[in-house]
Design brief:
This protein is α+β, with helices and mostly antiparallel strands and 131 residues long. The protein has a single domain, classed as Gyrase A, domain 2. Helix content is 45%, strand content 24%. The chain contains three helices and four strands, in the order αββαββα. The protein has a four-stranded antiparallel β-sheet with strand order 1-2-4-3.
Length: 131
């Protein structure tokens, strides 16, 4: 994968999630890089990160869980108003060779991230998480 400015890309995604995905409180997306065809995943929360302790805890838990999964964080950013947070994720290399196998891997990562963000939100709301 070519070298990219992931911080800038993640900030652009956070801005996109704030303006275009504002009706969804949180979620994940797969992003295809048109230059080389690689796939990334993005996790976001539209829940007032700057003002909400729960939103900050949720993002922390998502990022912590990424370290335990077979994925790596490429970047973390906020929308300019601090309302939306976003994490850009790259799957670690798996032995899949075909385009269908690689897509399957990314779909599985997306589903795992969906579960992760929902559990993080619930955990942050119960106060059971430690930071």
């Amino acid at each position: 994968m070519p070298q990219r400015n992931w911080s800038e890309f993640t900030a652009a995604f956070a801005t996109y999630a704030r303006s275009k995905l504002a009706t969804n409180e949180r979620g994940t997306l797969l992003i295809r890089c048109t230059g080389d065809g690689t796939m990334l995943a993005a996790v976001y929360g539209n829940d007032n990160y700057r003002a909400s302790t729960r939103a900050r805890q949720e993002a922390y838990l998502v990022r912590q869980r990424l370290r335990e999964m077979s994925a790596s964080e490429l970047g973390f950013a906020l929308s300019p108003d601090g309302y939306t947070w976003a994490v850009l994720v790259q799957a670690r290399q798996q032995p899949y060779q075909t385009p269908a196998g690689k897509l399957f891997q990314m779909e599985m990562l997306k589903e795992a991230l969906e579960d992760t963000v929902q559990v993080a939100w619930q955990t942050a709301g119960t106060g059971n998480a430690t930071r």
